[in-house]
Design brief:
This protein has 124 residues and is mainly alpha-helical. The protein contains five helices and no strands. The protein has one domain. It has helices at 2-21, 23-27, 37-62, 68-93, 99-120. Helix 3 (37-62) runs antiparallel to helix 4. It is flat and about 50 Å long.
């Protein structure tokens, strides 16, 4: 569980810091383009601040054995929400390219991994 949580910490922190520094560069491959300063504030807050906040929460969970399951549950549920929302929307719009199918696989894989960890440690 600890390895899973630390991997999630670094992924979320990387996305968050990248979006703080260069939100359009990081999010550009997804087709997001914003020219308005209000949009840049929103991108930095939601994709930068939220991801960094999540990374900090997961790091806090990873630092104490009593909080591992809480961190894994939070990340698992977040990945379920992301992957199912991305899949449903992708199926409706069917955008070109392989980015979203790739992200769906990664997000579902992370959710399944988290779910398996939770299942294996359910009596702890």
């Amino acid at each position: 569980m600890k390895v899973y949580l630390w991997i999630c910490v670094f992924i979320n922190a990387g996305i968050g810091v990248g979006c703080w520094l260069d939100p359009l560069g990081v999010l550009g491959p997804t087709g997001i383009s914003v020219l308005d300063p209000n949009g840049l504030v929103e991108l930095r807050a939601m994709y930068g601040g939220l991801e960094v906040g999540l990374a900090l929460f997961l790091a806090w969970c990873a630092m104490d054995d009593r909080r591992f399951r809480t961190g894994v549950m939070a990340m698992t549920l977040m990945l379920v929400g992301l992957s199912l929302s991305r899949l449903a929307t992708w199926l409706v719009f069917m955008p070109e390219g392989q980015l979203h199918p790739f992200l769906i696989v990664i997000e579902l894989g992370g959710a399944i991994t988290g779910g398996m960890l939770l299942w294996r440690t359910r009596s702890i």
